[in-house]
């Protein structure tokens, strides 16, 4: 079990760092991006950074065998989902049909 916990962290931490490296230095708004990210992990899911962070949080709670950590993790899930929904609304407004098409071909959290 300890190996599985460490493996989750060993995969998700570098993945989150890699995904974040794809972003421009300033990335608060959709207009900060020159183009819609569709390569790398974005080929598979709409929110790979959120997904990596969710799994990383779970891995940390498991790694330290923390019941309070697992409880906090379960409380964070709906918050991450809500954040993804808000971001998707913003992305739809900015990218329009391009993002709608992207949503149809990628797994995601709010509008699969």
From TrEMBL:
Q: What broad class describes the main subcellular location of this protein?
A: membrane
> Transmembrane region positions?
48-73
Q: Where in the cell is it found?
A: Endomembrane system
Q: One GO CC annotation, please?
A: endomembrane system
Membrane topology listed for this record? Multi-pass membrane protein
Record's Pfam families?
Answer: PEMT
Provide the alphabetized UniProt keywords: Membrane, Transmembrane, Transmembrane helix
This chain's protein is named: Protein-S-isoprenylcysteine methyltransferase
């Amino acid at each position: 079990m300890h190996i599985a916990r460490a493996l989750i962290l060993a995969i998700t931490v570098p993945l989150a760092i890699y995904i974040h490296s794809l972003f421009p230095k300033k990335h608060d708004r959709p207009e900060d991006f020159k183009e819609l990210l569709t390569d790398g992990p974005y080929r598979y899911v709409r929110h790979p950074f959120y997904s990596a962070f969710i799994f990383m949080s779970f891995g940390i709670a498991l790694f330290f065998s923390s019941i309070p950590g697992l409880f906090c993790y379960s409380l964070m899930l709906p918050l991450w989902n809500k954040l993804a929904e808000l971001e998707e609304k913003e992305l739809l407004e900015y990218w329009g049909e391009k993002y709608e098409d992207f949503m149809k071909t990628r797994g995601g959290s709010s509008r699969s």
